[in-house]
């Protein structure tokens, strides 16, 4: 078993080391946005964040900028939702990690909830994607809860937003004061 701190050993460096080693096992990260990765012979074969699996989970996990990681060798994946070779996996995660930077400035605490502010008007013009994202704003549901609800959308549903896409779509509404982040 290998343990470490992602504030000292960044996630991409840890993943690069694991994938280059060709080992199989489970990488768990304890963090409010934490979850699990399974690797096998230089591939990422499964990722899980709460009920979310596969590519959406991998996208959320790429947002990790801290937390304690534990690698348990020879732990088989409970499912095979991904098949990302080393270079593709690292490039994919780097792209996702960069994309989270601005989103996390607006939504740093995923236990917070969102609500429409007094400035919101039902006459506010929105696109279809914005409408789908704004429908997810529900009293009492945390940001994490909103993201986890994405896992229960039908597979292949074209209206399903990806995790970062959901928050990136809501971000301008928060910045404009139309939607408020309510700390937990």
UniProtKB/TrEMBL annotation:
It comes from the Bacteria. InterPro entries: PatA-like_N (IPR025497). Residues 3-100 form the PatA-like N-terminal domain. Pfam families: DUF4388. PANTHER family: DOMAIN GTPASE-ACTIVATING PROTEIN, PUTATIVE-RELATED-RELATED (PTHR36304), DUF4388 DOMAIN-CONTAINING PROTEIN (PTHR36304:SF4). This is GTPase-activating protein. The lineage of its organism: Bacteria, Thermotogati, Deinococcota, Deinococci, Deinococcales.
């Amino acid at each position: 078993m290998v343990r470490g701190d992602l504030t000292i050993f960044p996630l991409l460096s840890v993943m690069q080391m694991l994938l280059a080693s060709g080992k199989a096992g489970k990488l768990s990260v304890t963090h409010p946005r934490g979850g699990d990765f399974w690797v096998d012979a230089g591939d990422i074969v499964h990722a899980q964040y709460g009920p979310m699996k596969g590519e959406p989970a991998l996208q959320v996990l790429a947002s990790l900028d801290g937390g304690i990681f534990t690698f348990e060798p020879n732990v088989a994946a409970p499912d095979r939702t991904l098949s990302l070779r080393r270079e593709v996996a690292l490039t994919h995660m780097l792209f996702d990690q960069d994309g989270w930077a601005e989103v996390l400035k607006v939504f740093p605490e995923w236990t917070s909830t969102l609500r429409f502010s007094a400035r919101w008007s039902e006459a506010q013009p929105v696109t279809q994607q914005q409408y789908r994202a704004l429908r997810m704003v529900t009293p009492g549901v945390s940001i994490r809860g909103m993201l986890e609800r994405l896992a229960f959308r039908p597979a292949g549903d074209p209206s399903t937003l990806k995790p970062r896409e959901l928050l990136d779509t809501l971000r301008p509404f928060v910045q404009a004061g139309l939607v408020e982040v309510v700390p937990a």
